[in-house]
Amino acid sequence: MSLSKIGIFFVINQQILADAIPVRQGEQYGNAICHGGHYDFWETLIAQTPTEAAFKARAYDAYPRGRVVYQTKEKKFVLYADTCLDQSTLRRIADLFNVANPQIARDEHYQCAVCNPDYMD
Q1: Which of the four pLDDT bands, split at 50, 70 and 90, describes residue 121?
Q2: Is 115 helix (H, G, I), strand (E, B) or coil?
Q3: Would you say residue 75 lies in a domain?
Q4: pLDDT score for 2
Q5: Structural domain of 74
C-alpha cells in the first residue's frame, strides 16, 4: 500500500491525466482515504501540453473521469470510473496509481458528455 496512490483522473483522447498522491498523504472521508476534486483540478490547471489544452477547452465533466480511493475497513482499493472506459484503460489507470486488482465500481456521478444523456455542453 505504501507505493500505491489515490486521487482523481480524466481520460482525454486516450491519454490519462491524473492528480495522484501516496495513500498516507490522503484525507479520511468516512471509511475511505481520498484525494482531490475534479472541478478544482480543472479550475487550477494551467495547460502545458496538447492533452491539457484539450481538457481545458471543455467543461471539467466533459471527458471520462473517476477516482481511486482506499477503503480502510475492507483494506482494498476501489477504482470508480465512467462506464465508457474499457478494461484496457482501467488497467492503465490502475498501473498509473500502482494499484493491483482494484475493485472496479461505477457511479452515476462519473458520466462524461457522451455517457450522460442530460449533458449540455
Answers
A1: low
A2: coil
A3: yes
A4: 55
A5: 5-106
Q: What is the structure's pLDDT at 7?
A: 98
Mean pLDDT of 67-92: 96
Hey, is 96 helix, strand or coil?
helix
Mode of pairing for the β-strands spanning 103-106 and 76-81: parallel
Vertex 101: Cα angle to 111 and 52 (nearest 5): 45
Q: Which cell is 2 given?
A: 505504501
Compute the distance between CA of residue 70 and CA of residue 3 in angstroms, rounded to an integer: 13
Predicted pLDDT of residue 63:
96
Helix (H) or strand (E) holding 76: strand 76-81
* 119 found inside a domain: no
CB 38 within 8 A of CB 89: no
The maximal CA–CA distance of the chain, rounded, in angstroms, is 40
Instruction: Look at residue 116 and tell me if it is in a domain.
Output: no
User: Residue 27: inside a domain, yes or no?
Assistant: yes
